[in-house]
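Exam revision sheet. Question 4 asks you to relate a sequence to its structure. Input first:
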Amino acid sequence: MQELLLKWAVVLLPRRTQAKLLPILEKILSTLFGQGDAGGAQRSALIVFALRVASAALAYIMQVFLARWMGATEYGVFIVVWTVIVILTVFSGLGFSVSLLRFIPEYLEKKQYELLNGLLFSARFLVLLSSTTIAVFGVSIAWLFSDFISNAYILPLYLIAVCLPMHTYTGMLEGVARAQDWQLKAMIPDFIGRPLLVLIYMLVALALDYPPTAVTACIVTIAAVWTITVLQTIMMEVSLRKVHHPAPRKLQIKSWLLVSVPMLAVDGFFQLITSSDVILIGLWLPPDQVGIYFAASRTLALMHFVYYAVRAASAPRMARLYHSNDEEGLKDFVRNTAQMTFWPTLLMAGFIMAVGPFLLSLFGENFTQGTPILYILIIGVLARASVGPVDALLTLSGHQNTCAKIYATVFVVNLILNTIFIPILGLYGAALATTLVIIFEACILYRSASKHLGLHTFILPLKRRETAINEAG
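Answer key, structure tokens:
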């Protein structure tokens, strides 16, 4: 197909433009029709990235409307309590949303269907049990310490806890779908369906004369999350039945948890690193400042989603290459993923720097204060993209404990820097602390991959660096 389309292009394109357009067309067709792991990863990354772009646009529109409807203060309150749920969702999942990406390809490759069936059953039960327990415990803690929490946050916290079990369950189902390389089924429910339903339900609430407050937003979010969970559960049940392999369930819960919990620590600390700044701003600054900061960080969504798209698409293939002991294939694949991550991220950085002030103005007049914050945060996103999805590589290659220690260290540094900078510099301090922490994170992740796996994950080729050193000597 690729050769046929190129032949047609030679016939149809004017000769003057063939020299410029044919290489570009060949690259596009290579991405769409390329064979092997790299070709498959590129296609998956393209699908994931397209969905991430669509979901980023939809989520951004949702946030803009919520901010305009609710005002900076109520919007800031809602953002804080929803961020709490996002963080607890990761810990409630017990790491299965990530470990499934390792176990399912392994069991399918080795035809261990009894373990596969046991894993799918156990993951659902354990995730629901864990998330429900944490939701009840969280509400109890909020009630016990209500005297120390601003009254504006109390009722929204109680309400939003209802989302936790279902939001965690959808995350686990996303992991099952990603492990099967069902990228559309993994992403559409939560990334497209949920923000769309929040918008629709919020419009209905406003039409029914409900006040545009954080409480109303929480109720709307509960309805959206539960609706999506029911629909996604039905969809995944139908899909799994089509590929089901009849075999008695074999349970290895202890072994699964021993692998999943360190992965939970990795994802948990990663989420804390990326979200704790919002919580900490809420501790020291008024809710409207939280809204401004969140609007700036949310504007970076397109840049973040390049990284997450490549990470989601490449994780199953990295696991397969590692478990098949294909060292050369893994090295080539890691090099490709670094290229696929950094250059599109750099392109997005230029775009966002140009249109960022306009995008922030959509939230409201006060939100343009976040423009300098946006520029500072861009540096950190580029630093993370420069080493590619190295955290997924370490986790799926059995070095999840090392990765967990790295993120624990990074989280401690994050807390220290935010605690020092936010009271002194306000929002600028939060942005500076977050950027410095991400640069630190990228450096130690790169060093760990080089030490434990002998892999070069930085965007610049190693040979070029060695040549430069020799020439300098």
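Marking note for examiners. Confidence is low (pLDDT under 50) at residues 465-473.
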